[in-house]
Amino acid sequence: MSTERRHILGGGIGLGLGLMTNNVSAQSKVQDKNVTTPLIIAHRGASGYQPEHTLEAYSLAIRFEADYIEPDLVATKDGVLICRHEPFLSGTTNILDLPQFADRRRTLTLDGTIITDFFACDFTLAEIKTLRARQSFSDRDQSVNDKFLIPTFAEVIHLAKTHKIGLYPEIKHPYWHALSGHDLGACLLRDLKAQGLNHKGASVFIQSFEPESLKKIRPMTPLPLVQLVDGGDVSYRDGSIAELSPFDWHMMGLTLNYSSLLTPDGLKAVKAYADVVAPWKRYLLKAISSAELSNPTEADCEIIENKSIIDNAHALGLKVHTWTLRNEPKRLAKPYRQDPHLEFIQLFNMGIDGVFTDFADTGIAARRAWQTS
Ligand code: G3P
Ligand code: CA
Question: Is the pTM of this model over 0.90?
Answer without folding.
Answer: yes
